[in-house]
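Changelog-adjacent note: as of this version, every example in the card shows the full chain rather than a window. The one below runs 87 residues end to end.
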Amino acid sequence: MSPTLRAIEAQLDLIELALEQGRVGQVELEEWAAPDDGITVDSEADLRRVLDRIQATIARVEKARAEVGVAIDELRRRRAAARAYRP
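Full-length structure tokens:
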């Protein structure tokens, strides 16, 4: 596997670990790997696998973001309800 694809996978590992630990907003990534070596026919399968992993990670991040949004909305609703009961 090319060094570029390995670097991208390492960055995906950081994102996925942060998702599992609930701290995706705190992830500090280095500069994204830029393709500096050519993709050969032999590495096409690796490239496709990494691209699939990128898409899956993006989907997980978007799902986590949506879940956080729902939780924030629920907390706001509860806060408003609690304030309504204050004398």
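Structural remarks: The longest helix spans residues 44-84.
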